[in-house]
Amino acid sequence: MSAGKTTQAFIGFGSNLGNGRQLVLSAWNRLAVEKMVTPCQLSSLYVTEAVGMTSRSLFTNGVGMVETELGPLELLRLLLQVETEHGRLRDVHASGYQDRFLDLDLLYFGDTVSSSPELLLPHPHIANRLFVLAPLAQIAPWFRDPLTGQTVEVLYQQLLLQIQQGKVPAQGITRIERAE
Asked: Which pLDDT tens digit goes with each residue over 36-47?
């Protein structure tokens, strides 16, 4: 990426071990010390039920918008480093999703579409996860998904309708506070 060129990126924050609020805010603040990453806005935090996995613990979730001079793979590597710094351990022998202190997902990187083995963009599960769309719609309802051309607000309303109609299982979610 050429020096000085910035891209808007959206990051999903999640935690279901330890103090989720503290871990999410710590990760957000950790990104602020990076020279080529400028945090712009963090959504409210939400308490959510596990989706796609079984867990006894609720999640704390949010979405952050950053401006970055990093490329998408460089940003992904940084997110993985921040996860590790916050106690994330990945059990390579476990199947499926696992409980974690911190999970950082690169949701969107500008209008980049990527299907490489290292990085799928946009994140493949955005349209089916209320814990992503609710906070994302709060901070960037106008953002257009580069694959569908639909705004985040439209994706959010479509998922709510699918849940209401019983086409998608209910996903427990409660907004707990503004993150700032």
From this structure: 999 999 999 999
Q: Which residues contact 117 (CB under 8 A, 6 or more apart)?
A: none
Active site residues per annotation? 88, 100, 103, 105
- What's phi and psi for 87, nearest 5 deg? 90, 10
What domains sit in the chain, N to C, each tagged with a CATH number?
7-126+172-177 (3.30.70.560)
Dihedral-angle region of residue 161 (phi above 0 means left; psi in -120 to 50 means alpha; beta otherwise): alpha
C-alpha 160/C-alpha 117 separation (Å) is: 31
Helix or strand (DSSP H, E) at 67: strand 59-68
Q: What CA–CA distance (Å, rounded) separates 7 from 146?
A: 14
pLDDT digits (tens, 9 = 90+) for 65-103: 999 999 999 999 999 999 999 986 665 665 556 677 899
